[in-house]
């Protein structure tokens, strides 16, 4: 009886530990740079759209997969842009870079998106923007390891407990 309790305790601790270690944070970042560091002369807009919009100088797309609805946190410089991100599965979002002064000067800005559950995919795409000095824009999404599902971990733990029981039976023979 003592060994059964010990096996159950070890299996339970193993399952709790494995699920607690799992992490699904996903961070997507967008960055623009180049030109004179003293002026900020461009606007960034983010939204669902497509590349056919005639006013947009630059569009960069990224898709998220995973379904469901998530409101990620977003910041552009020090401005909170969380309200612009209302994600539902299968959408394509675009970044619009607009030179609002027509001057070749701007500084590096970035925003991050951390949903904790949605998976993003995007190419790393440098883009030249007219009226800028060596402008570039890209979305960089770090790769993430898949998170084990709790049911899978439970099945794995039950399998381990079964192997221990089988080993004990063979030891008694």
In short:
The protein has helices at 2-21, 150-172, and strands spanning 27-33, 42-48, 58-65, 69-70, 73-76, 79-80, 87-88, 92-99, 109-114, 119-121, 136-140.
Can you tell me about this structure?
The protein is of the alpha+beta class and 173 residues long. The protein has one domain (23-172). The protein is 25% helix and 31% strand. It has a 5-stranded antiparallel sheet, with no helix packed on it. Strands 2-8-3-10 form a 4-stranded antiparallel sheet, with no helix packed on it. The radius of gyration is 25 Å and the shape is elongated. The model is unreliable at 17-27, 33-42, 53-60, 67-71, 103-109 and 123-143 (pLDDT under 50).
Indicate how many domains the architecture comprises.
Answer: 1
What is the rounded distance between the termini?
Answer: 18 Å
Q: Please, what is the average pLDDT?
A: 55
Number of helices: 2
Query: Helical amount among residues, as a percent range?
Result: 10-25%
Succession of helices and strands: HEEEEEEEEEEEH
* Widest sheet: strand ordering: 6-5-9-1-11
Q: What is the tally of beta strands?
A: 11
Backbone shape: elongated
Class from secondary-structure proportions: alpha+beta
Percentage of residues in strands: 25-35%
Largest sheet: 5 strands, antiparallel
Name the poorly predicted regions. Answer: 17-27, 33-42, 53-60, 67-71, 103-109, 123-143
Radius of gyration based on Cα positions: 25 Å
């Amino acid at each position: 009886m003592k060994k059964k309790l010990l096996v159950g305790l070890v299996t339970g601790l193993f399952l709790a530990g494995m699920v607690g270690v799992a992490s699904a944070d996903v961070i997507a970042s967008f960055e623009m740079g180049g030109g004179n560091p003293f002026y900020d002369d461009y606007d960034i807009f983010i939204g669902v759209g497509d590349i056919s919009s005639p006013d947009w100088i630059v569009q960069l797309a990224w898709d998220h997969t995973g379904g469901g609805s998530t409101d990620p946190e977003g910041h552009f410089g020090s401005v909170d842009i969380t309200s612009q991100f209302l994600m539902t599965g299968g959408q394509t979002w675009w970044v619009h870079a607009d030179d609002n002064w027509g001057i070749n000067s701007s500084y590096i800005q970035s925003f991050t998106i951390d949903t904790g559950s949605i998976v993003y995919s995007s190419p790393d795409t440098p883009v030249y923007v007219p009226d800028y000095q060596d402008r570039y824009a890209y979305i960089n999404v770090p790769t993430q390891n898949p998170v084990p599902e709790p049911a899978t971990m439970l099945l794995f733990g039950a399998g381990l407990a079964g192997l221990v029981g089988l080993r004990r039976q063979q030891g008694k023979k």
